[in-house]
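Researcher: Structure for this, please.
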Amino acid sequence: MKKIFRILSGLVVVLLIIIIIKTITFKSLQIESKPAALPVFGNASASNLSKAITFPTISNAINSPIDTIAFGGYLNFLSEAYPLIHSKLKKETFSCFSLLYTWEGKSTTLKPIILTAHLDVVPVVGIDSWTKPPFSGENDGTFIWGRGTLDDKAEMISILEAVERLLGENYQPERTVYLAFGHDEEINGLRGAAVIASALKERGVEAEFVLDEGSSLIVGLVPMISNPVALIGTSEKGYLSVYMTVEMKGGHSAYPEKETAITVLTNALNSVVNKQPDARISEPVNDFIRYIGPEMPFLAKAIFANRWLFNGIISKIYQRSSTSNALVRTTTAPTILKAGVKDNVIPTKAEAVVNFRILPDETTAGVMDHLKAVISDERVKLFILEGFVEPSPVSPVDVYGFKTILETIRQVYPDALVAPSLMIAASDSRKYIDVSKNIYNFAPIVVTPEDLARTHGIDERNKIEDFTRGIGFYYQLIRNSNKL
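Model: Predicted structure, token format:
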């Protein structure tokens, strides 16, 4: 017995030594970088964002009418606000309102970079609840208010402000820089970014990297981390909506059958919700752990440094909240339910729509196989709705593009920690998959827990100090991307 105890004690000691060694050697991946000396972007830049917000460039729905006055007015405003861009860069218009600017580089051998944003916004909700009118662009000295100040006119205007300043300094890039601005990102970007990307592909463009909106600088959203965290999205989840329908004999509610279309569909929905795909750590989330884990307190650092031992604990940590759970699981969300027309009539048909956001390396076909297995009832018919997309490929973190973006963030936001991440939402960036293997999502905006509800919600606003600093990010990124 003593011998067994000594063996077990020895194994525990060895295990502790391994854990400690792996924790100690779990080194920081944050690079040291001297803060960049940036030009001042002040009132004129803020005024341009304010003016941009006053154009209600709303995307309502696919194939819905476009407010040509708002979109046309916005494009005219851009021509007036950025004269150097419109005189020195090649401008092309696609689908009437999407823009592609080409800034020719000195070298024809260097791969170009593509900076993207979108000029459309989502419709306004709860207009009477807004503190400031949603298309006022009001500047109160601290914030600029209105739809698009976070998503996504701030990024578009920031890019233009940075390029206009560089042109004014007679700067010429070594590599070509494309500025690509779609007009329908909020309704899938089929006539905007998709058309621009197709044109670039036909021209044989192979970009060094593409940078689009999506992830951002988050504050107070990563447990045990007090610093701002700059997330660089390296992949987007897939999107799938499945229409479920059951048709059965109806009748009078006074003498119901044991099962009806409603009960069969309800049982199917319960199965789908209660038996969701297993949680797992995908490559982008694993990369996030590699970059943020070393910055955590010792106990948390030890857990993340020893995934081989604590993988189950890490998975459970992520599953505690809806936001973090979405990072480790293909999520399941019933969103539409229809049945019945009268309280005393048993309907002959019940319908539902379930939306899935799919992890990288999983597929829509895999989700459908999972659905059929957990429902296991041939009376429930399943149909894939139009608009589904597979998860985007995972962009690498050991290449020039990612390293340049990381370096720039550290120069402009010295107190920020930087980490790759998984994009839960969708952007125009996936349209450029055939143009570059290195596609990243980062917008230089600061997001707090309070701000999460403002994007696509009520009282969208952007702090002027954060906005002008974001211009500096693009200014420095272009310069860094052209170092030889």
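Researcher: Any notable elements?
Model: The mean pLDDT is 95. The radius of gyration is 25 Å.
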